[in-house]
Amino acid sequence: MSLSLYLKKIPYLASIKSLAGRNGCKIWLVGGFLRDAELKLKKELTDFDFCIDGDVYVLAKKFSQTIGAKLIVLDEDELAYRVIKKKKGVNYKYDFSRIRGKDIYQDLSCRDFSVNSLALRLDRPRVKLLDYFGGIKDLKKKRVRLIQDKNFNSDPLRILRGFSFMAKYGFKVTRPTLEAMHCYRKKIRNVSTERVNEELFKILSSASSYKTIKLMDKYRIIDEVIPFAEDMRGVGQGRYHHLDVWSHSIETLKKLELFLKRKKTYALRLSSYLNEMLARNRRRVQILKLACLLHDSGKPKAKKKIGNKTMFHTHEKIGARLSQELAQNLRLSSRENSALVKMVFWHLRPGYLADQIAPSSRAVYRFFRDTQEEGISVILLSFSDWRATRGPLTDFKKRKRHERIMLKLIDLYFKDLNRKEEKPLLDGHEIMNRFGIPSGPLVGEVLSCLKEKQALGEINNKKEACKEAARIIKIRQKGEKDVDNKRYKDNRRKGRHNRG
Prior knowledge:
alpha+beta, Hydrophobic Seed Protein, Beta Polymerase, domain 2, elongated
């Protein structure tokens, strides 16, 4: 499709041109629309940026009134405004900003990368694309190239934006650009959390984000986004592993993305689950990828040498706490925060299931009970974690069994997905009335035990439920503990699956 055809698809463009002419404004279409049009993307383009030499506010205000939309002030000092109009179910975004410098050349020279420095004068009849900095050539060669170093200084977020272009379009970042990114990387700390968050999750939305994260690591850009990376880098893990903690974490991300590409049968079945929106514009799979990078973040603090063994007891707890800190710093939603923490905290749990040739129904039930809606995420994280582990002590026979069990758990999840949950045989009021116990934790514990046994088919009617409830209450009142739960906790105390 030619550029003129893309222009015809911009709603209300004729109104913008007319208003600019009547108000004596010079106006250029700039930025992402022209880049994407030159790339001939098949998706519908909905974001339009206009550079104005004239009264920006009057033009933006009159345009909003003409099309019946609200005017949003983006930056009053810099005279930047936005108009959003919904048409046929699609939101179109029009951004208007004042020209920087004395002419369009100076304005374009202040932009981040050559591929974003294209401009098209709209208030003249002749359509001529302005390309002062070789943007079209770089688009053809699929490369991200900085216009001038000082542009990172004026807005350090551009460093991350360069990597998000790499992830989204499969571009390569030129070496001088990477060196400038490395030089200015610490200035990212001055950028608002929300803006950093947006670019990070754009990177993680790519099907091959591993390559981008790997390059960000090489130039130490990732340290400014995930501060724990520096602590994890260089920390050895003993002979179960072939990589240090941080390199292993990146490798885990790689293995997850390879699984989703190669195991297409599972990827299709998991699609709706992984693509569920946990917050505005952010999906579960992006949080899972972040969990891959953070799942062993607790190891540097947990690391202990006992004889010839390297141990990491409780690293999942420390990692969950650090992940929660990062989630809060990145201003993630409460749902995203909860999902991330669960993934990191439970990432060892599937390994305990793999101890058994075939996990018991009770063990499987308790796994999904404890991990809740993140059970599949935890399975995928564990699967990727084990595949990223190839040290001299790695038991490949055991790893194969682990993988078989993980895939079986996914199958069980989908098998039970549409199964209607059974009505409880006893409710809390019945338990309190029948056994004369007050409302409190004991009632909740009895309900939980009954729910488990009902799901496993061990009790099938109210009489059996009452008998089991009486047994549980008697045991608890004597101060004894549940044997099955005790076995799981004993495994953790003995340090099983210390390979992490």
